[in-house]
C-alpha cells in the first residue's frame, strides 16, 4: 500500500513566508510609531520651551501627549491583528495577490490533510489534489508580497528617524537634558539670552549659577520685616531694560512689582526693596526673556507679647486677706504710691531671651520653670518693688531664630494720687459774745481712712498786753476709722475759759490727717473761719444792719417783679 502523501514542502514555504511577512510588519509598523513618538516629543518640547509651564501644568501637558501616543499605539495594534494567523488565510491572501483564486488548489490540499477529510468524498480526488499541490510546491515556490513596502525601504525610513533623534542630541543636548529633567517634574529652566547668575534675598543666597542643578532655596522671613532682593544677571546680547517681581499668594492671586537697576548703564544688577509680608508667598522673576522658576518666601510670625501685671497696693488701702490685683493685655497701669508691681510677659511662641530696659539699664527677665512662653521680672528691682514715682520701660524679646521685634513693647507705670482729706467747715455768724458757744459744722472725706482730726486755733487779743494765742485742739477720736469714710458733724466752740473781750478775733481751721500705714500721712485743711468778739449792743447793731440789708434786697426784688425798677 502506498504511503499517504504529505505537503511538507508547502508547509516549509509557508513558515518561511510567514517569517518574512512578520519581519516586514514590524518594520512597517515601527515606522509610524517612531514617527509619532518623534513628532509628539517635538511638540511637547516646543510647548515646554515656549511657555515653561509650572509643575502642575507640566504634568497636565505630559498627560495629554501620553494620551495621544496611547491612541496611536492602540490603532497600530488593531492593524497588526488583521494579518493572517492560519495557513489557509495566508494562502488565500497569496492567491488573491497573484490572481490564482479560480485555478489554485492550495487551500483544498491543506484541508484534505485534516483527519476528518476521508468523510468528505472520494479518496481518489483527495490523493490527486494533494499530489498536484505537492508537485507544485516542489517546483514553483510561493510568491506574491503581502506587504507592499519592501524591508529595505522600511529600514531606511526607520534609520532616518533614528538619525533625526541623533542630530537633536548633537544640536541641542543641553536643552534636551533640561527637557528630560523637566519631564521628571524638576524645577529647572532653559537657558535664555538673559541668564540668572545669582539671587540673594535678605542676605541669603537663594541661587547661584555655579550650583544651577539645585532649585531655589526657600527663604524664611519674619512677619512684617524689611527685606531686600538682589539679582545678578548675565546677558548674551542686549541687557534687559525692565524687570518685574511677581508675588503669588496661596489663592493664586498675582501682584507685580518693578525691579530697580542698581546701575542704570549696566542693567546686570537689579534690586527690590521688599514690602512687609504677613503671610507666605511664592515669587517669579521676569527680566527680558528670563522667567525664573517659582521660589518661596516663607513668612513666620513674630512673637506677640502681652504684659501681665500683679499689683499689691499698700497695706493700709486693703482689708486684711485681700488678694493682689491681676491685669493683662495692658501697656499702662496706674497704681498707688508704695504699691508693689510684679511684671511678667506672655508670648505667643517660645522665646530665646527677654529683657527689660529701664533708665538705659537692661534687666534680664527669667523664664517661668513651668510655662515656656512666660518670662518674669526679678522681684528685687527697686522701681517695681515699691513704686515711688512714675516711669516708662521697654520690653525686648528674641525668638529662637534670633529675630527681634521691629519695635520694643513700651509700658508705663503711673501713680494714682492718694489725695489728702477733703475738709470743709462753716459757721452761722461771724460776731459772737465772749461767753458764747458757737457751733461749727464740718465735713471730712477720705479714700482710705483718717489718722487724726484737730482744730488749729489762733486768737488775736484787742488788749496789747496779751500775746496772741495759737494752739491745736485734737478731737473726734471716735470718728477716726479705717477705710473710705465721710464725716458730717458739728463742733461746739467753748470760749468761757479764754476771758475774751470786745474786739478780740478768733481764727479756726479744721485739720485732718489721712492714714498711710508706714508712710507719713497727708494733711487736709478747711478754709479759715474768723469770729469777732463783740457785746450785746454791737450784736444788735449787726443784726439791725443785716435786717436793713435784707429789707433793701427784698424791695428791689419786688420792684423788678412789678416792673417799677430799672
Q: What does this entry show, briefly?
A:
With 566 residues, this protein is an alpha+beta fold. The protein has 4 domains: 8-169, no CATH class; 191-300, Coagulation Factor XIII, subunit A, domain 1 (Coagulation Factor XIII, Chain A, domain 1, Distorted Sandwich); 305-416, Immunoglobulins (Immunoglobulin-like, Sandwich), CATH 2.60.40; 422-534, Coagulation Factor XIII, Chain A, domain 1, CATH 2.70.50.60. The chain contains 9 helices and 30 strands.
Structural overview:
- The strands form 6 sheets. Strands 3, 5, 6, 9, 10 and 11 form a 6-stranded mixed beta sheet that branches. Strands 23, 25, 26, 28, 29 and 30 form a 6-stranded mixed beta sheet that branches. Strands 2-1-4-8-7 form a 5-stranded antiparallel beta sheet, with no helix packed on it.
- It folds into 4 domains: 162 residues, no CATH class; 110 residues, Coagulation Factor XIII, Chain A, domain 1 (Distorted Sandwich); 112 residues, Immunoglobulin-like (Sandwich); 113 residues, abc- transporter (atp binding component) like domain (Coagulation Factor XIII, Chain A, domain 1, Distorted Sandwich).
- 30% of the residues lie in helices and 31% in strands.
- The radius of gyration is 57 Å and the shape is rod-shaped.
- α1 runs antiparallel to α2 and α3 packs antiparallel against α4.
- The chain has 566 residues and is α+β, with helices and mostly antiparallel strands.
Helix count? 9
Strand portion, in percent?
25-35%
The share of residues in helices is 25-40%
The best one-word shape is: rod-shaped
N-to-C span: 176 Å
Oligomeric state of this protein: single chain
Number of strands: 30
State the domain count: 4
Amino acid at each position: 500500500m502506498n504511503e499517504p502523501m504529505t505537503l511538507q514542502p508547502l508547509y516549509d514555504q509557508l513558515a518561511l513566508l510567514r517569517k518574512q511577512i512578520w519581519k516586514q510588519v514590524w518594520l512597517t509598523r515601527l515606522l509610524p510609531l517612531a514617527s509619532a513618538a518623534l513628532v509628539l516629543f517635538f511638540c511637547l518640547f516646543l510647548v515646554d520651551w515656549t511657555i515653561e509651564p509650572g509643575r502642575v501644568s507640566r504634568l497636565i501637558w505630559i498627560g495629554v501627549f501620553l494620551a495621544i501616543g496611547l491612541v496611536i499605539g492602540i490603532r497600530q495594534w488593531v492593524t497588526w491583528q488583521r494579518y493572517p494567523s492560519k495557513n489557509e488565510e495566508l494562502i488565500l491572501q497569496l492567491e488573491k495577490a497573484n490572481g490564482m483564486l479560480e485555478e489554485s488548489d492550495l487551500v483544498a490540499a491543506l484541508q484534505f490533510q485534516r483527519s476528518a477529510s476521508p468523510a468528505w468524498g472520494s479518496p481518489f480526488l483527495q490523493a490527486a489534489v494533494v499530489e498536484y499541490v505537492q508537485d507544485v510546491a516542489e517546483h514553483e515556490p510561493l510568491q506574491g508580497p503581502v506587504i507592499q513596502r519592501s524591508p529595505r525601504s522600511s529600514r531606511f525610513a526607520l534609520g532616518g528617524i533614528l538619525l533625526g533623534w541623533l542630530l537633536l542630541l548633537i544640536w541641542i543636548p543641553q536643552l534636551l537634558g533640561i527637557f528630560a529633567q523637566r519631564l521628571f517634574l524638576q524645577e529647572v529652566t532653559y537657558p535664555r539670552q538673559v541668564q540668572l547668575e545669582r539671587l540673594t534675598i535678605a542676605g541669603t543666597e537663594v541661587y547661584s549659577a555655579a550650583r544651577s542643578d539645585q532649585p531655589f532655596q526657600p527663604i524664611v522671613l519674619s512677619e512684617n520685616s524689611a527685606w531686600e532682593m538682589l539679582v545678578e544677571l548675565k546677558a548674551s546680547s542686549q541687557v534687559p531694560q525692565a524687570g518685574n517681581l511677581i508675588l503669588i499668594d496661596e489663592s493664586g492671586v498675582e501682584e507685580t512689582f518693578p525691579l530697580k537697576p542698581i546701575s542704570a548703564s549696566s542693567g546686570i544688577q537689579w534690586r527690590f526693596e521688599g514690602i512687609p509680608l504677613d503671610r507666605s508667598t511664592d515669587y517669579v522673576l521676569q527680566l527680558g526673556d528670563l522667567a525664573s522658576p517659582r521660589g518661596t518666601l516663607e513668612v513666620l510670625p513674630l512673637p506677640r507679647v502681652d504684659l501681665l501685671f500683679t499689683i499689691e497696693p499698700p497695706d493700709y488701702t486693703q482689708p486684711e486677706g485681700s488678694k493682689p490685683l491681676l491685669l493683662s493685655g495692658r501697656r499702662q497701669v496706674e497704681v498707688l504710691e508704695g504699691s508693689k508691681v510684679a511684671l511678667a510677659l506672655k508670648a505667643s511662641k517660645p522665646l530665646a531671651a527677654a529683657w527689660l530696659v529701664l533708665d538705659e539699664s537692661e534687666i534680664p527677665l527669667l523664664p517661668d520653670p513651668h510655662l515656656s512662653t512666660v518670662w518674669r521680672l526679678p522681684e528685687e528691682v527697686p522701681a517695681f518693688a515699691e513704686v515711688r514715682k512714675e516711669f516708662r520701660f521697654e520690653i525686648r524679646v528674641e525668638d529662637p531664630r534670633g529675630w527681634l521685634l521691629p519695635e520694643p513693647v513700651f509700658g508705663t507705670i503711673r501713680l494714682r494720687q492718694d489725695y489728702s482729706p477733703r475738709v470743709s467747715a462753716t459757721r452761722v455768724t461771724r460776731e459772737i459774745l465772749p461767753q458764747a458757744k458757737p457751733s461749727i459744722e464740718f465735713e471730712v472725706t477720705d479714700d482710705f481712712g483718717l489718722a487724726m482730726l484737730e482744730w488749729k486755733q489762733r486768737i488775736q487779743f484787742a488788749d496789747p498786753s496779751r500775746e496772741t494765742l495759737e494752739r491745736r485742739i485734737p478731737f473726734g477720736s471716735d470718728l477716726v476709722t479705717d477705710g473710705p469714710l465721710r464725716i458730717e458733724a458739728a463742733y461746739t466752740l467753748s470760749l468761757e475759759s479764754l476771758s475774751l473781750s470786745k474786739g478780740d478775733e478768733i481764727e479756726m481751721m479744721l485739720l485732718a490727717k489721712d492714714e498711710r500705714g508706714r508712710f507719713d500721712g497727708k494733711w487736709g485743711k478747711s478754709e479759715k473761719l474768723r469770729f469777732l468778739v463783740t457785746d450785746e449792743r454791737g450784736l444788735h447793731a449787726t443784726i439791725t444792719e443785716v435786717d436793713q440789708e435784707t429789707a433793701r434786697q427784698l424791695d428791689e426784688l419786688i420792684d423788678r417783679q412789678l416792673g417799677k425798677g430799672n
